[in-house]
Amino acid sequence: MSKQRLEGKVAIITGAASGIGEATARIFTTHGALVVIADIQDELGAGVVASIGPGKCKYKRCDVRNEKEVEELVDFTIKAYGRLDIMFSNAGISEKLTSTILDVDFAVLDNVIAVNVRGVAATIKHAARAMVASGTRGSIICTASIAVTKGGFGPAVYTASKLAVVGLVRSAAAELGRHGIRANCVSPGGVVTPLALSLCGWSQSQVEEFAGAMMVLKGGGPLKASDIGEAALFLASDESAFVTGQNLMVDGGVTAVGSRPASRVE
């Protein structure tokens, strides 16, 4: 049996009923972690718990826009498992991929900011408070995006929200380092998730072809949610013990090599 890299650790993953969060929950539990799956998709969340096994994970409804629910999520986790070592703040939304700055819907903007910025701030705050109180050398991971690297990789409101996530994480790394708590981002390239499909209206194969055309690294097939989960595993584990304040790009070289953004979905 391969070494279980999270043996004895307890993790919260928000947005874990589907997509990247679900894939990461499966990876974390395979590596020995006990996981609380947090989401607002109750039926899907219960299904993930049943699939992984209730001995390895639990589901807790949490709308990250509501700070009280985030605080209750952290309290639930500590009562259930006795500690909190890892917070993967992954829940996020976007406006439609065809949206432009010329037609920003401010009701949509307010909701995107509430989830992607306010929600991340709340998860960092309450996870860090619990870790500091218990003396845990914890790891906080937040999902950002390759859209933070240059204009054109995402619509304006989504991009702005993910830039804010990077700022929050860097500030958290600076402030929490003295407590032994690390904070990092993971930034996915074009990966097929239920959310992505709902926002663009394309088929899975069309999205994979579109995203794959930008990738410099060829031959490995399409980027998958589990690839992002493996990166989160590294950031959650002791293998990244001196990694903090970073934004790990998982994009097949798109941003590092300098590929220009492909034309967005019309």
UniProtKB/TrEMBL annotation:
Transmembrane ranges, per UniProt, are: none
Return the similarity comment.
Answer: Belongs to the short-chain dehydrogenases/reductases (SDR) family.
Source organism per entry reads Elaeis guineensis var. tenera
From the Swiss-Prot or TrEMBL record, give the protein name: Short-chain dehydrogenase reductase 3a-like
Q: Which SUPFAM superfamilies match?
A: NAD(P)-binding Rossmann-fold domains
| Xref: Gene3D superfamilies | NAD(P)-binding Rossmann-like Domain
Q: Which gene encodes it?
A: LOC105037673
